[in-house]
Amino acid sequence: DIVMTQSPDSLAVSLGERATINCKSSQSVLYSSNNKNYLAWYQQKPGQPPKLLIYWASTRESGVPDRFSGSGSGTDFTLTISSLQAEDVAVYYCQQYYSTLSYTFGQGTKLEIK
Amino acid sequence: EVQLVESGGGLVQPGRSLRLSCTASGFTFGDYAMSWVRQAPGKGLEWVGFIRSKAYGGTTEYAASVQGRFTISRDDSKSIAYLQMDSLKTEDTAVYYCARVKQGTQGAFDIWGQGTMVTVSS
After folding, report:
1. Of A51, A97, A105, which has the smallest distance from its Cβ to B46's Cβ?
2. Which residues of chain A have a CB within 8 Å of the CB of B108?
3. Phi first, then psi: what are they for A19, rounded to 5°?
4. How far is CA A66 from CA A20, A63, A86, A90, A112, in A?
5. Cα separation of A55 and A91, whole Å?
6. CA B13, B19, B21: angle at the middle one, nearest 5?
7. Contact between B108 and A93 using a beta-carbon 8 Å cutoff
8. Per the structure, how many domains does chain A have?
9. pLDDT tens, A2-33?
10. What is the pLDDT of residues A33-57, one digit of tens each?
11. What is the CATH number for A14?
12. Chain-chain contact of A50 with B46 (C-beta, under 8 angstroms)
């Protein structure tokens, strides 16, 4: 299985400041034939199901505010929130969908307000 | 409105079986692969398995932790996906979500249900 490791486990950022969450995969999730990274980011607020934010590592899902952006390729990826809002408090997960035999999630990063 | 609603959760003894349902509405269910994801209390997300659309053979894949015990199926005429869980263990206790696979992505989940709780305990 591809192991996804996020850092940090938790993060406190002031309102209006930038938040950065990292995700590293144990093997590349870049598919050479189409040059796409099979990597998604989700946001989960307490008591709610996850919400898709980003897919193909950097494509924002429809309706997601543009302060959310994804970057990276191969094995190293980043989710950036450019200006933290109060409603962004949540747990964030990365997920690889490169291996159709076993999709895997990172352990999650808890984002709080400082 | 595009929606997924899970049902069938509850308290079950170890070794017993349970079947979860995921009822879809607001989209052409048969065109989409569907997946199940679970979350143990206070823990992270764990992918359970998925079923491809009939156009891609309707085949299934499972996580190693449930392989041979869980079975995913679908009834496109009713817009329902099922998760049959046999030989349940205490470590299967979790909220079980069904999720739609975003078309063209192979495995990003764009629509999620609210989840149904499964508790395995004697």
Report:
1. A105
2. 40, 52, 55-56, 95, 97
3. -120, 135
4. 15, 9, 15, 17, 20
5. 17
6. 140
7. no
8. 1
9. 999 999 999 999 999 999 999 999 999 999 99
10. 999 999 999 999 999 999 999 999 9
11. 2.60.40.10
12. no
